[in-house]
Fold each of these.
Amino acid sequence: MVLDAEIKGILRYYDVYLSQVILDEIEKCSESKRNKRYDYSSDIEYTKLEINEEIVELAQKIKIREQNYERTKEMTVAEKVVYYNNSGKEGEREIERKRALKRKAVASM
């Protein structure tokens, strides 16, 4: 099964990236789903994304944003302002804490 012309038309406006994580997930699918995914991925141009520290940080930020969305989707605008000015900063502090621990570990080597 190949991608239809409409989807191909849309994809030409985007840079598509697939990581090894995605390719590993495809491998876990049933054979029929796996074959469909491989057909799709062979029908588009994509860049294989190497996993590095920058990618891991980006994934953490995306996860934090998704969590924040889930926490705030039922809030009023005023409640969201308070949330993001206070507790919403927790995720950024956690990332910085992890960076500091990593720097400390590297420095002690």
Note: The longest helix spans residues 53-72.
Amino acid sequence: MQAAPRPGPRRWQGHPSLSRPLTILGVERAAFIVLLTLCYAFGNLGGGWVGALALFVPLFAAGRWMAAADPCMLAVIRANAAARAHYDPAPLPKAERTVL
């Protein structure tokens, strides 16, 4: 006789490296490639590598923070960018209206 399955989260018994995001130096791979491309273009167009390095350091720190805070953040942002915007026809109450 088998015991009834316990409710709650199920643990996956696979190798841990299969469920980790792909990172380069602690930054998600796609973000790191965009980061390097931006810094390379800035260094070539700006005429100096000091500016490219000054751009690389804060962007790299932001990428490390993003990967440490939520490893799936880039995937969520990418999925939401592909979603269509929804129109809400209900008017806002007068207290929430802002005039620019």
Note: The chain has a mean pLDDT of 79.
